[in-house]
Amino acid sequence: MASVTCRIADPPSDPVAAAQARARRLAPVLASRAEAHDASGSFPAADFEDLRGNGLLGLLVPTRLGGCGASFADYAAVATELASGAGATALIFNMHAAVTGALAHTPEELVRQLGAPDSFLASRDRVLARAAAGALYAVAMSERGAGSRLSRISTTYRRTAGGFRVTGTKAFVSGAGHADAYLVAARDDASGEPRVSYFLVPADSGVRVEPTWDAMGMRATGSHDVHVDAEVPEDALLGGIEGLAVLLAEVMPQWLVASYAAVYVGVARAALQAGGAHLRERGLHTLPAVRSRMGRAEAAVAAAGLVVDEAARRVTDQPGTPETNRWIWRAKLLAGDTAAEVASSVLEAAGASATRRGHPLERIYRDARCGALQPATSDVCADWLGIAALGGDPDRDGQVPRW
After folding, report:
1. 259 conformational bin, left if phi > 0, alpha if psi -120 to 50, beta if neither
2. Residue 353, class by beta-carbon neighbours within 10 Å (0-12 exposed, 13-18 middle, 19+ buried)?
3. Which fold has domain 138-242?
4. Res. 253: pLDDT tops 80
5. Would you call the peptide bond into 376 cis, given omega within 30 degrees of 0 as the criterion?
6. I need a surface site. Which of 114, 184, 209, 288 has the fewest CB within 10 A?
7. What residue segments make up the domains of the chain, in order of their start?
8. Which residue(s) pair with 139 in the sheet?
9. pTM of the predicted model, to two decimals?
10. What's the distance, CA 215 to chain centroid?
11. How far, in Å, are 8, 170, 285, 291, 341 from residue 288 at the CA level?
12. Residues 30-72: pLDDT tens digits?
C-alpha cells in the first residue's frame, strides 16, 4: 500500500488545520455520491479513496508515524465536516477513528501501569503506521441480543500455542468486507472469569462477511454481520493484556459514544443545507412559518454543536474524569435527538415533494433517525445522566450494566 501522509500538498506547519480544510473541501464531493450509494446500499469506495488520498485515515496517528497527530477535538471537527456531506461515509470513518484514536490516545503511562509489555507498544505503532499509509479499520463489537454491552457478548477467545483463537458472530459492523482489519471484542472462554478483551483481526484471517444490512438509514455503511473464526498471533491482543475492554470503555467512552455525536451534528447541518436549498428553489423561504422552523432548527443545531465541541475539548484536556464522561453522554444524547428532530421539522417545512426517494432531505431524514439508536442510545444516555443528577453512580445504580 502506498504511503500517504497528512501533509500532502499542504504546509507542514499545521497538518491538523490542513486536514480540516480537506474535509471541508471533500464534503460536497461526498454529497454528490451519497444518493447512489444510499439507493443501492453500496460501500462508498470512491469516498474512502479520497479520504485515503488526503491522508485522513491517519488523522489521529502521531506525526512521528506519518499521521496528522490530531486530538479528539480535531477529530470531532473533521467528522462533522464529512458528515455534512455524507453521513454514512462519516460513520464508517468514525469506526476507523475509534480504533486509531483509542490506540494513539490511551496514555502510555496508563498502558504501562496496567502491565502492557514493550512488545505491545511496537505492535501499536505498526497498526497506527498502517493507518497513516491508508489501511482502514472496522469495529466488530455489537452482537444480536447483546447490543454493545461488552459484558453480554458471546464471542469467545482462548489461548493457543501461537496466540489466540477468536470465534463468534458480530452485527452492525460498518465497512464490513472493506476493512483491512477488525477490532473484535471477545470474552475469555477458558478461565471462567468474566474477562473481555479486544483483538485486531486481519480481514484475511478467518473473517467471513454475511450480507445482512438492508436498513432504513445509513444504508451505505454496509454494516453487515461478520463471522469470525480466526487464529491470531499474540500481538493481536489490544494492549497486550487480557480483560482490558470494559475498563477502557469505562475510562475512555469517547471512542464508543462521543465520536458518534460529531457525525450526527454534521447530519443535522446537512438537513439545514438541503432544506434551505429546497425552500429557496420552491420560493417557500419567504413564508414566516417556514422561516420560523428554519430558525429554530438552526438554533438547535448550533446548540448541539456547542455541546459536542465542549465534550471534545474536555476529552482532549481532561480525559477519563467523571465530569468529562457526563459531557460525553450529553453530547451523544443531544446530537442524536437534535439530528432527528431537525431533519423531521425541515422535511415538514419542505413539503411532500422532499419525501420522494432520491431527494437529499429524504435520505438525510432516514440517516438522522439512526443517531438516537446508536450506542449509547439516547434513552441510555439520558438514564445515565439522570442517575448522576440524582446523586447516584451510573456504573453501580443502573438496572443493566453500562458495558
Report:
1. alpha
2. exposed
3. Butyryl-CoA Dehydrogenase, subunit A; domain 2 (2.40.110)
4. no
5. yes
6. 288
7. 15-136, 138-242, 257-397
8. 183
9. 0.94
10. 18
11. 47, 49, 8, 5, 20
12. 999 999 999 999 999 999 999 999 999 999 999 999 999 999 9
d(CA 82, CA 157): 36
Distances in Å between the Cα of 376 and the Cα atoms of 87, 251, 270 are 18, 15, 23
Superfamily of domain 257-397: Butyryl-CoA Dehydrogenase, subunit A, domain 3 (1.20.140.10)
Q: What distance in Å separates the CA atoms of residue 374 and residue 391, rounded to the nearest whole number?
A: 26
pLDDT of residue 289: 95
Give the other-Cβ count within 10 Å of 162's Cβ.
10
Question: Are 166 and 191 contacting, i.e. CB atoms less than 8 angstroms apart?
Answer: no
C-alpha cell read off for 38: 444510499
Strand 156-159 and strand 163-173: pairing? antiparallel
Helix ranges (H only) for 152-286 are: 245-251, 258-282
Cell of 368: 438522522
For residue 3, the model assigns a pLDDT of: 47
Task: Let me know: does 342 contact 301? Beta carbons within 8 Å.
Answer: yes
d(CA 203, CA 223) in angstroms, rounded, equals 15
The neighbouring-strand residues paired with 135 are none
Question: What percent of the chain shows pLDDT beyond 90?
Answer: 77
